Amino acid sequence: MKDIVYLERLEQAEALFKPQRVAVLRQLSEPRSCTEVGKELGQTAQHVYYHVRKLLEAGLVSQVSERRVRGINEGIYQATARSYWLLPSLVGTIGTRRVQDELSLGYLLNLVEDVQADLVRLDGTDGDLPTLGVSGEIRLAAGDRDAFLADLRTTLQDLFTRHGGATGDTFRLAVACYPKEDDRDD
Hints:
It holds the Pfam family HTH_20. This is DNA-binding transcriptional ArsR family regulator. This protein is an alpha+beta fold and about 190 residues long. The chain has 6 helices and 5 strands. It has a 3-stranded antiparallel sheet. Strand 3 and strand 4 (about 70-80) form a beta hairpin. Helix 2 packs across helix 4 and helix 3 crosses helix 4 (about 45-55). The chain starts with a strand and ends in a 23-residue tail after the last helix.
């Protein structure tokens, strides 16, 4: 099971737009039969199989094994991922995105979409990836964003100089700063 599957086709996204189907998918975080999922959700195995078949067609579930129960073969299914992300281009940017500079929301949206695509590509690799993440909160007065960005650039440039040798694995560093909704001044 992957950590992330990028939904690249509209049919995949449509398969998730039914609450009952999402409930079935959640039950399939571990390998289960339609009978087992049905018992958990209070539904018939046939009703669950209808949803499983749609999820199979969309590539969101796979059959992982089969067992013989009372003379019939029963499929065992599992979700293909722990998370499903919609590819931003499924809908696409409506109109043109305003990207004035590194301080604009459009720049941050482009950065987040790039990071999201990178993470999905990395999830397909084997083994434990040497990633790291840092998160924190700061408080900036409205007029201090430019000065903060200049300080951040200087600090990062110092890190790049000290750690950015010509050999070793290449890592992408993305830094995002955005207001928290609950702290914004109205």
